[in-house]
Amino acid sequence: MENQSPLQNGALESAVGNGGRSGDGSALIFLGTGCSSAVPNAMCLIQPSDPPCQVCSQSLSTPPIILLIEEILMCNTSLLIDYCSSDGIRNYIIIDVGKTFREQVLRWFTFHKIPRVDSIVLTHEHADAILGLDDIRAIQPHSPTNDIDPTAIYLTRHSMDSIATKFPYLVQKKLREGQEVRRVAQLDWKIIEEHYDKPFVASGLKFFPLPVMHGEDYLCLGYLFGEKCKVAYISDVSRFPSNTEYVISKNGAGQLDLLILDCLYKKGSFNVHLCLPQALEAIKRICPKRALLIGMTHEFDHHKDNEFLMEWSEREGIHVQLARDGLRVPIDL
User: Fold this and answer.
1) Are 197 and 221 spatial neighbours (Cβ–Cβ below 8 Å)?
2) Which CATH architecture has domain 27-174+182-324?
3) Cys-Cys link to 69, which of 10, 34, 198, 316 (CB 3.0-4.6 A)?
4) Phi-psi region for residue 76, left (φ > 0), alpha (ψ -120 to 50) or beta?
5) Where are the domains of the chain?
6) For residue 40, is the peptide bond before it cis, meaning its omega torsion is within 30 degrees of 0?
7) Which pTM does this prediction carry?
8) Burial of 162 (0-12, 13-18, 19+ CB in 10 A)
9) Residue 9 and residue 65: Cα distance in Å, rounded?
10) 58-93, pLDDT tens digit by residue?
11) Closest by alpha carbon to 151, among 120, 182, 183?
């Protein structure tokens, strides 16, 4: 693992394992690291407090080009896996396509030169994970008759049923008699087996589903992937079932190289997400080599809170930092 170093336009790069530099080998690109309502918080802008929210108010005073590279703007949580297999074939796999997907494409696909999406993996069917599905057509080849190869999308049966209600035109297999052809995203729906105990392969990369509780009434999936370096991505969690925690813990099935973990608020607790105190306790139990936190609200000041996390990391022996939108992490998968 290498220390973070500044790159062009202020982007940060941080290697895990023997991951290569920009353009060489596999990498993880954080398309979004914010909560469902994203950052800045709209209420902070239309009904500012006195004094105003320090994080959100900066979005009105900071030039747009600086906003692009600072931590002031955070879209819905989403990870793009730039996967380069051993034979040199490169595939692009995205986890979740939420409400801010189009903005993420404009900001980070262009910045990191991502030409397409080969597969989509969904964690659950909430708005901040799926409402960008309609925008997938914008990154597919243009065809007025939808005569293109569909993009594979992996999801649970529950998510499939929910999406079929929200986006029936994306799911229907053929038009009804007399129905006009309209250009829509072409998706190849692939259901993850119900018990979640079998891996699946998306664009050459093997994924192991990680069931977690997102509130006690809702089961969400995280994912474990990577053979040379093990990565767990868990974006929406309030509690780990014991079997899931065993699979990803140092004292269980084996130590993670990188844990990417939900962290909604800086203080206190919340019923459907981990907050910073619970996230740090979970990290101590799981004991990965490194952890990056995602899903934050506007309570977090990246510079100040990362300084606190650096002190915590030195004390506990686990490197933990807040991720940010646009962060690229080279990694040997």
Assistant:
1) no
2) 4-Layer Sandwich (3.60)
3) 10
4) beta
5) 27-174+182-324
6) yes
7) 0.90
8) middle
9) 9
10) 766 666 555 555 667 889 999 999 999 988 999 999
11) 120
